[in-house]
Amino acid sequence: METKTLNVLLVEDQKLMRIGLKSLLEEHKSIETIYEASSAKEAIEKYKQLKPDVILMDIGLPDGNGIDTAKKLIEYNQDCKIIMLTSHLSEEEVFSSLHAGARAYVMKDVNTDVLEMIIKTVDDGAMWLDPQIVPILREKNSGVIPARKMSRATFRAQHANLTQREYEVLKLVVDGKSNQQIAIALTISEHTAKAHVCNIIQKLVVDDRTQAAVKALKEGLV
Fold it and tell me: 138: pLDDT confidence band, cut at 50, 70 and 90?
């Protein structure tokens, strides 16, 4: 199966950080081209001009912030796929980023192999949340991850905030398929399949894939 290569727009005002990230990501065969922007204005201009598959967006920019820039980009194109990059964990920025429409929230110290997986996951239509922020989302009941005490009708109506792709993966999980089998069935990488399953487990607020399958059946999700 031919591997899709991706074009990424890296929005980062610190030149050394930008050069370092670009150099590391260029080592991965799944990344074809890495465009660069050092400001919010340049990010918007380059996105409209170059149409990258995924944007890696720094939150702190010299002429604004990445969250407001993400909002503008998603207003321009609701299918814009943005990964927020940050060097610190801020509850306010987590919520603002996700409500703005970002598909992922990632700490800058992330391993580049993991970052490559996140980029591919987001390009495939899924969300990715740094494990450090999941407890915050649960505690605050932000709506990104459903609360434990939710009526069956509400739970079904909201489909546990699952994306269409995650719903497809959930049905395969219920059928007892492994990550490898899910990847083959949906023509995605095994890493992406695993990321989808992790997201489903988080959104259903369960501990493993077996509990996710049981809950899906009980709540009539599949």
Answer: low
Token pair 């501990």: residue: 207
- Cα–Cα distance for residue pair 11/72, rounded to 1 Å: 14
Whole-angstrom distance, CA of residue 160 vs CA of residue 77: 25
Provide the phi-psi class of 143: left if phi over 0, else alpha when psi is between -120 and 50, else beta. left
> What percent of the chain stands above pLDDT 90?
42
Region class of 77: left (phi > 0), else alpha (psi between -120 and 50), else beta: beta
Q: Which residue's entry shows tokens 């083959």?
A: 184
Residues 162, 167: Cα–Cα separation, whole Å: 6
Helix axes 209-218, 164-174, angle to 10 degrees: 100
Q: Is 164 helix (H, G, I), strand (E, B) or coil?
A: helix
Question: What's the maximum distance between 2 C-alpha atoms anywhere in the chain?
Answer: 52
- Alpha-carbon distance of 103 to 57, in angstroms, equals 11
Domains of the chain (ranges, CATH numbers)? 6-136 (3.40.50.2300), 146-218 (1.10.10.10)
Indicate the pLDDT class of residue 152, thresholds 50, 70 and 90.
very low
**What pLDDT shows up at residue 158?**
52
| pTM for this predicted structure | 0.68
Tell me whether residue 101 is exposed, middle or buried, using C-beta atoms within 10 angstroms of its C-beta: 0 to 12, 13 to 18, 19 or more: middle
pLDDT for the residue numbered 151: 47
Burial degree of 24 (CB within 10 A; 0-12, 13-18, 19+) = middle
138 is written with which tokens? 């649960």
